[in-house]
């Protein structure tokens, strides 16, 4: 089956990783989770093998299984974006080739963790060029918060766009509204999209002009993200503000400290909603205390999603 084409815009939820008590992948629940997301009217794609699916704990074979399962389960309904999470360029190239063969429609390229010690522009450019030479799929840059070493300088992003024709979008996690607006105004075009992942200020980033949302929270509230995206596109400020107010409560539930638990909290939300049978996470992550689960439930009630 030829993968559906994808223009790297719109609302793109990222899947979670259902697990059994022994930490093995619960494929049956994963298939249901994929269906739940694909059933949301208005989404444009689904991302797998990202932070939300605990990709750092997954082997190459598990990542291949998750991608192939997604393509088999919902790939005829929505495009599948696969994360490229690797600490070496060689492994990133291997993952990219696997993803294209498995049926992905685009690739979300994470920065190698070695860049946490700092990087030179030519390192970043060579990494993306090697991936682009290994696959014909569109590439999405993953931009980390600008205060973190894993982020790319504004000029580096410009060089990537100019030098690698298959780079078609950026997942903007810069956590800086000024840098985010700069990216929209200076780099966004008919062939390059800025996708916000700023759940704390989705409304603002969409109003500035981001062409879509790529977020782990979409695993649970993709319907609200679609409503917000469409309201902004339709210039309906009243509806957009009302939806943003509901999203605000879910943001308080999912994105509090410590940040490492954000997708852990989304799993608990899925259990509360009756969508997943358990909230098991792989160590070093640990199950949340009962008091925090109750806090999540209360905030979901405030958001009118529970």
Question: Your description of this structure?
Answer:
The protein has 306 residues and is of the alpha/beta class. The protein has a domain at 10-222: TIM Barrel. The chain contains 11 helices and 8 strands. The chain has helices spanning 27-38, 60-74, 89-102, 121-134, 154-163, 177-187, 202-208, 218-233, 237-254, 262-272, 290-302; strands at residues 10-13, 46-48, 80-84, 106-109, 139-143, 167-172, 193-196, 212-215. Helix 2 (60-74) links the parallel strand 2 (46-48) and strand 3 (80-84). Helix 4 runs parallel beside helix 5 (154-163) and helix 7 packs across helix 8. The longest helix is centred in the last third of the chain and has 18 residues, at 237-254. The radius of gyration is 18 Å and the shape is globular. The model has no long low-confidence stretch (mean pLDDT 98).
């Amino acid at each position: 089956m030829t993968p559906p084409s994808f223009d790297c815009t719109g609302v793109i939820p990222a899947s979670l990783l259902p697990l059994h008590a022994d930490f093995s992948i619960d494929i049956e629940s994963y298939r249901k989770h994929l269906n739940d997301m694909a059933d949301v009217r208005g989404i444009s794609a689904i991302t797998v093998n990202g932070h939300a699916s605990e990709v750092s704990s997954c082997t190459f074979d598990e990542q291949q299984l998750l991608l192939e399962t997604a393509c088999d389960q919902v790939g005829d309904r929505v495009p599948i974006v696969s994360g490229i999470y690797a600490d070496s360029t060689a492994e990133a190239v291997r993952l990219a080739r696997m993803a294209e063969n498995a049926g992905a429609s685009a690739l979300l390229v994470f920065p190698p963790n070695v860049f946490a010690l700092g990087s030179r522009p030519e390192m970043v450019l060579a990494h993306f060029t090697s991936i682009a030479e290994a696959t014909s799929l569109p590439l999405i840059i993953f931009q980390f918060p600008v205060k973190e070493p894993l982020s790319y300088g504004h000029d580096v992003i410009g060089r990537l766009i100019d030098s690698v024709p298959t780079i078609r979008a950026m997942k903007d996690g810069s956590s800086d509204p000024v840098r985010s607006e700069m990216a929209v105004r200076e780099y966004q075009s008919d062939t390059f999209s800025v996708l916000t992942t700023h759940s704390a200020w989705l409304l603002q980033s969409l109003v500035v002009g981001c062409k879509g949302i790529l977020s782990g929270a979409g695993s649970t509230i993709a319907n609200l993200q679609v409503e917000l995206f469409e309201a902004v596109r339709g210039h309906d400020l009243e509806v957009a503000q009302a939806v943003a107010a509901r999203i605000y409560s879910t943001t308080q539930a999912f994105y509090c400290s410590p940040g490492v638990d954000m997708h852990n909290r989304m799993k608990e939300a899925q259990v509360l909603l009756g969508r997943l049978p358990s909230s098991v996470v792989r160590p070093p992550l640990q199950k949340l205390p009962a008091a925090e689960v109750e806090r999540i439930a209360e905030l979901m009630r405030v958001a009118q999603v529970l």
